[in-house]
Design a protein that fits this description.
Chain lengths: 631, 99
């Protein structure tokens, strides 16, 4: 890629990161003094970053701009320059992060209005925005890693925001630890790059990756994928994401739906030159995507917790994106288009879920919802639009972006292409099923509310962001695929779009997907819509439902394969430490102490016995001297 | 009178002294036995000085006498003070210095 030095406005693009970071610093260091206006400052910095990002993107003009900042670390042969790479790909992410981020900040003003720690919440959100922008703007892998860890930290802090709830504290720990597994992969990938290529900048690595042996490139690709899987909640590290819903709902919308969890897709798309060299790693990406999108879709069908359904839906949709980036150049743009539309409609859905929870005294059990459509009209309409966009209702955003991925899968042309396409279509049907079920349980049917629940529409500070996101959910797909093709905008990064031959005509795919979608939605109506919903989950259900309720036993597998052996290992180590190491030290001390007190008995206090021992000693010395001189 | 006679006498005196220190309980007697051992050593020193025709051994013997005199002064003072407090001159009664 050919980058040009930054000029004009773009030279100030570091402000994008600095503004939210400064906001976080002021709110965290300012303490209670900032309680009164902290949420306004937090929102203001992100809105300012959004405006700046918009201006920068207009000034970009299809170039790839490098912004040199300072020397981050210069040690011997490792010279890391902190710099930003502002290119069409990062610009897309900057707009998504700051745009959706700003809306969610506004929403949080209302959502967190009664929380005594609202200022701290906004500080963490600002910290997240800053770290996420660093992640997507970095021009080298080390700076990317700093952002990568930063969003992990912000995610941890925000999941555990209500840390007085044990479930939230545990979920945060789980998210942090499972992310750490992935982060080790990313760190190792960076180590391998430095060891083999001597550089960690995108330009240097991508420019010289061709000279590496195939095995090394595959190793880098797989390690990067491990990092991406951890951050994006992909198989086999998907189990943390649904638990992360313990955090406040705006956090779920921003971090665990729209932005942070898509960092893995960004990483793989950004590392396209590496994956171009290694079909093996790319095939693994494909497999991970396909497996995850099925796991997410199946598990989503059996959850009763509204946020868990959306979380498994997120897992599944990011699986689509992984599938797409695994397809190679044909899929990158489709993946990013889906990432953007998903950012809109899933953030909107989560905000809607938050609004519903607000009305239902923070209950998340859909079996106790029902009949909310008439009580919460704005929420119902915005949520409904997000729902239609997600299941791929024709001409809404999910329709365009999901179809593009399914087409790209078929366009592989081989047998696997058909398998992947079929999996993606099947998952689209499941998506329609679980989302329709969610809609029917929440907004349809008769009220099944708990005592003392009086649903009411949320204040406008919450509904306005929902409306904006709903409009985005409707229009984003059309805008990104048809009106202003993302393909052309991203051409400087991924190359000019090729007019590839379609194996299956796009119209056929669209009709097929729509049919399956209608089928899924109809099945949901058969199961949920037309009969009375039990207030507690039925116990006598088929093994399939039982498996889906427990997310295909992901937690069980993790616990029996990793957690228990880990506990055994730590217990063994504690035993070795207590008995072995401590035992040796304590034993030595006890032996010395015992023998000295036993030797002390020889000190009888009788002068004559001392004299005898002196005499004995003198005799021994004299005898030894004699023996030596005579011998 | 050959060299051997003196040395044998010195050895006998030293042995009597050593055995006396070990077996007797009276501090005064133990003290006298120590003097006996010192003087047997003096005798040895003088004997060898005479045999080798130098004065080194005799000078050494004078030193021993001087040190022994000083030691007697200190030692008898200690014995006196122990006797005053314990009404006993037995070395086995002064047995507090132990573990």
């Amino acid at each position: 890629m050919d980058t040009v030095p930054a000029d004009g406005l773009l030279a100030a693009s570091w402000l994008l990161i600095a503004l939210p970071l400064a906001g976080a610093a002021v709110l965290l260091l300012g303490g209670r003094r900032t309680d009164r206006w902290g949420h306004l400052l937090g929102t203001g910095t992100v809105v300012a970053a959004f405006v700046l990002g918009l201006l920068c993107t207009f000034a970009l003009d299809g170039r790839q701009v490098d912004v040199d900042l300072f020397t981050f670390a210069a040690t011997g042969s490792l010279d890391v320059q902190a710099g930003l790479l502002y290119d069409p790909l990062s610009a897309v992410f900057v707009l998504l992060i700051t745009g959706v981020g700003a809306l969610i900040h506004v929403y949080s003003i209302g959502y967190m209005a009664h929380d005594p720690r609202r200022r701290r919440f906004f500080a963490y959100l600002n910290l997240f925005i800053a770290a996420m922008l660093l992640l997507v703007l970095a021009d080298n892998f080390v700076a990317l890693y700093v952002g990568w860890e930063g969003v992990g930290l912000a995610s941890y802090l925000l999941i555990a925001f209500w840390h007085e709830r044990p479930s939230a504290a545990t979920a945060a720990k789980k998210a942090f630890i499972m992310n750490r597994v992935g982060d080790v992969g990313l760190a190792l990938a960076i180590f391998v790059m430095f060891a083999q290529l001597g550089t960690v900048t995108f330009e240097g690595v991508f420019g010289s990756v061709g000279v590496l042996a195939g095995g090394t490139v595959t190793a880098i690709g797989l390690l990067l994928l491990l990092g991406a899987c951890g951050k994006s909640g992909q198989f086999p590290l998907q189990a943390w994401l649904p638990d992360a819903m313990e955090g406040p709902t705006p956090v779920s919308a921003l971090i665990h739906a729209a932005t942070m969890v898509t960092a893995g897709v960004y990483l793989i798309a950004r590392s396209a030159p590496i994956y171009d060299q290694t079909p093996t790693a790319r095939a693994v990406v494909l497999a991970v995507g396909a497996v995850t999108l099925m796991i997410g879709a199946i598990a989503g069908c059996a959850q009763d917790d509204i946020k868990k359904v959306l979380a498994y839906s997120t897992v599944s949709q990011i699986g689509y994106m992984f599938l797409a980036v695994g397809l190679g150049p044909a899929g990158y743009v489709a993946a990013l288009a889906h990432l953007l539309t998903h950012g809109f409609f899933k953030a909107g859905l989560f905000l809607g879920a938050g609004s519903v929870m607000h009305a239902m005294n923070d209950s998340v059990d859909m079996r106790r919802y029902g009949g909310l459509a008439s009580k919460m009209k704005v929420t119902f309409v915005t949520f409904g639009l997000g729902y239609l966009a997600l299941i791929g209702f024709p001409f809404l955003s999910g329709f365009y972006s999901k179809d593009a991925i399914i087409e790209a899968a078929f366009d592989r042309g081989d047998g696997w292409g058909y398998v992947l396409g079929a999996v993606a279509i099947l998952a689209a049907g499941l998506t329609a099923f679980y989302m329709t079920r969610l809609m029917l349980l929440t907004f349809g049917g008769r009220p099944r509310w708990e005592d003392g629940v009086h649903p009411h529409e949320s204040p406008s500070v919450m509904t306005v962001p929902m409306i904006v996101l709903a409009v985005g959910s409707v229009l984003a797909g059309f805008l990104l695929v048809v009106a202003f093709p993302l393909e052309e905008w991203l051409a400087p990064v991924f190359g000019e779009p090729e007019g590839a031959e379609h194996v299956v005509a796009p119209l056929v795919v669209s009709v097929l997907v729509t049919l399956v979608m209608v089928l899924g939605a109809g099945t949901a109506w058969l199961f949920v819509g037309r009969r009375e919903v039990p207030l507690t989950a039925p116990v006598r259900v088929s093994p399939v439902v039982r498996a889906a309720r427990r997310a295909l036993y992901a937690d069980t597998v993790n616990e029996s394969l990793f957690m228990r052996p880990g506990q055994w290992l730590t217990r063994a180590l504690v035993f070795v430490d207590n008995r072995g190491v401590d035992g040796a030290v304590n034993g030595l001390a006890a032996t010395l102490g015992g023998s000295s007190s036993r030797l002390g008995r020889a000190q009888t206090g009788f002068v004559r016995s001392y004299a005898l021992s002196m005499l004995g000693g003198a005799v021994v010395v004299a005898g030894a001297l004699l023996a030596v001189t005579a011998g | 009178m050959s060299l051997t006679h003196y040395l044998v006498l010195a050895a006998i005196l030293f042995t009597i002294g050593a055995v006396g220190v070990l077996v007797r309980r009276n501090a005064i007697v133990v003290f006298m036995c120590i003097e006996l051992m010192l003087n047997s050593v003096n005798l040895t020193l003088v004997t060898f000085a005479r045999a080798s025709g130098t004065l080194d051994g005799q000078i050494m013997a004078f030193f021993v006498m001087v040190v022994a005199a000083a030691e007697v002064v200190v030692g008898l003072a200690i014995i006196m003070s122990i006797y005053r407090t314990r009404r006993s001159a037995s070395v086995d009664d002064a047995n507090l210095l132990k573990y």
